[in-house]
Design a protein that fits this description.
With about 120 residues, this protein is mostly helical. About 75% of the residues lie in helices and about 0% in strands. The chain has helices spanning about 5-25, 30-55, 65-70, 80-95, 105-115.
Length: about 120
């Protein structure tokens, strides 16, 4: 049975929306977790677009790579989306791994980044 790529893309996009909601809920008290979920939402939304266009997506967490793939498939991606993906990518490692930016300093750095 062939997979319905549009339905699969909708599922990915729905999960992206859930991560946006979680990021908003965590924003005030858990900045690093909020950044993580914001980056995940971006990644899932880009993968949803790739699935809708090509029925596949690269196995990466880097928004820039996902955008490059979309552009390579002939899809237009705005500068605003590219810039937002770059900003979110900068926060991925530090928000995912507690020792990536020096341990306890992470929450303070992300709180400043989010504000």
């Amino acid at each position: 049975m062939q997979r319905d790529r549009i339905e699969a893309a909708r599922l990915w996009l729905s999960n992206a929306g859930t991560d946006v909601d979680v990021a908003e809920l965590l924003r005030a008290g858990f900045a690093a977790r909020s950044c993580f979920h914001a980056q995940q939402a971006s990644e899932m939304a880009l993968k949803a677009a790739l699935i809708a266009v090509s029925d596949d997506h690269p196995r990466t967490h880097v928004g820039e790579h996902l955008i490059r793939e979309l552009v390579g498939l002939g899809e237009a991606v705005s500068k605003e989306v590219m810039d937002a993906a770059d900003r979110l990518d900068m926060h991925y490692m530090g928000s995912r791994y507690p020792d990536a930016l020096g341990g306890a300093v992470v929450e303070i750095q992300f709180a400043k980044a989010v504000v």
